[in-house]
Amino acid sequence: MLIGVVPFIAAFIYALGYSFGLLGVLNNGFTTRFWQSVFESGEFLKSFGYSAAIAIISLALSIGGALWVTLKFRRELDKKFLSFMMYLPLAIPGVVAGFFMIQLFSKGGFFARVAFQMGLIEKTSQFPDLVNDSLAFGIIVTFITMLIPFFTLLFLNVYKNERIEELSILAHALGANANQVTRRVFLPIVLKKTWVLIALYFIFLLGAYEVPLILGQESPQMLSVLIIRETRQFDLSKISEGYVVAVIYTIVVSITAILLFLPKQKNVYET
Amino acid sequence: MLLILFPFIFMVLLSLSSSWRFPEVFPGYFGFKNWVTLLGSEAGLLQSFIISIVISLSVGIVSTFSGFLISRAVFYHKKKRILTLFAYFPYVLAPVVFGACLSFFFLKMGLFGNVTGVIVAQFLIAFPYALIFFGSFWNKKIKSYEDLVATLGGTSQQTFFKVLFPLAKSMLLICFFQTFLISWFEYGLTSIIGVGKVQTLTIKVFLFIKEANYYYGALSCCLLIFPPVVLLYFNKRYVFKNLI
């Protein structure tokens, strides 16, 4: 366990020390001014809210899309070839997904060229800002395209394992209509079985780095991008503020991990 | 189906293109020029590919075996709930933030800016995954097998080599694939600990994006995507079984 825990604790203590001025080249001793400065500037809260909003929107749309695909196409996706096809997007890392989105949605990208050829625009500047934009359109679309295949496969697996097909037939036999089967049988079972993973993905998206680095804007930035920008900058007096954000972020995800994983450990290995 | 295949087709086509200026829908040049450059190693892509393979293989092998062995100790420990929870902390933390906070220690240990440092750093995030992954392997049935071997006079070595490893063979393979992919896809941590000196494929893609060299970028993306496609083909049916 030392391999997993010691580096984590060491990293946390280092960040904590730096944030209180106990470590660092220009720091002279204990101070809370970096914490005050972070909360007064409001950049952290803005970044946290921005990251959380992107994560929630991306997750909600991805889960909604995946539930719809599962309900509509589960029989087609059962076929061997199509089932393998659904796995293919999992082979695309965030770096590649971000790069691909730039190629599609930037002002000189694929869709801008198509729009030009169709006579919809006359110059690149007329094409809307879809990457590095203020609404984080590019980031959200990238997350959705990465998550829908994952959640679809996950839900399909739950559908089979929990025998939802049989339960649906039973519900129909007892007089339920299609809408009721979806709301009272399909959704509760699927969401109850996968909520921990959904929550885990919220944490992952909150700390996402590559995609917002490529497709994000200068301000506000997503949490990981902000932390790295602050801790790696040339202005040494500002580095401590970056570690303040890192400490808060670490505490938030650690508490979430405790809430998510501690209660359900009971009898987890008893089979 | 077309939607799924589109990114793959687009990346391959872009990697074969050059002189693709706005507003042309089709590139001015289409051929293997970029790929030949790769073989000539002008852009150092082949080197990056080999470095990525070496790093991911090392991380995959070491994480899988250490995760397997240590997860057994965790399972038999009285405080397994707390110990397992500890494993989640480095797992849920963004690797790049983890790397930023750890970089000081890597610098002090002489692991900054070299392949060994990147392997160690990636191991720190792949190992908790392996530990959590093998948590589902250990149960009363496995313990009974171990007890049976001991009762019949088997040594602990024989227990591992004749019973546990054969029983866990498919899980070991899947865990290796998964940890290989964690390492293969990793960018943030690698960029912090490797400080640009260890140029894995993900680092190369970023460099090409910064240089606006999209053709080489697409080529790097192709090299980055295809090994995982092959791995996914082999372990697709097991991936989700272990998530729920």
**What is the number of helical segments of chain B per DSSP (H or I, 4+ residues)?**
12
Biggest interface, chains and residues, is:
A-B, 83 and 76 residues
State the distance separating the first and last CA atoms of chain B. Answer: 26 Å
Outline of chain B? elongated
Decide which structural class fits the backbone of chain A: mainly alpha
**pLDDT averaged over residues of chain B:** 88
By CATH reckoning, the class of chain A would read: Mainly Alpha
Features:
heterodimer; A: 271 residues; mainly alpha; MetI-like fold; globular; B: 244 residues; 2% strand
In short, what is this structure?
Chain A has helices spanning 2-19, 33-41, 43-73, 80-87, 94-105, 110-117, 137-161, 164-173, 178-206, 210-215, 223-231, 239-261. Chain A has 271 residues and is mainly α. Chain A has a single domain (2-76, 134-265), classed as Orthogonal Bundle (MetI-like fold), CATH 1.10.3720.
Account of the 3D structure:
The complex is a heterodimer of chains A (271) and B (244). Chain A is mainly alpha-helical and 271 residues long. Chain A has one domain (2-76, 134-265): MetI-like fold, CATH 1.10.3720. Chain A contains twelve helices and no strands. In chain A, α11 packs antiparallel against α12. The longest helix of chain A has 31 residues, at 43-73. Chain A is globular. The model of chain A has no long low-confidence stretch (mean pLDDT 89). By secondary structure, chain B is mostly helical. Chain B has a two-stranded antiparallel ribbon with strand order 1-2. The longest helix of chain B is centred in the first third of the chain and has 32 residues, at 45-76. Chain B is elongated and about 75 Å long. The mean pLDDT of chain B is 88. Chains A and B meet through α1, α4, α5, α6 and α7 of A and α1, α3, α4, α5 and α6 of B.
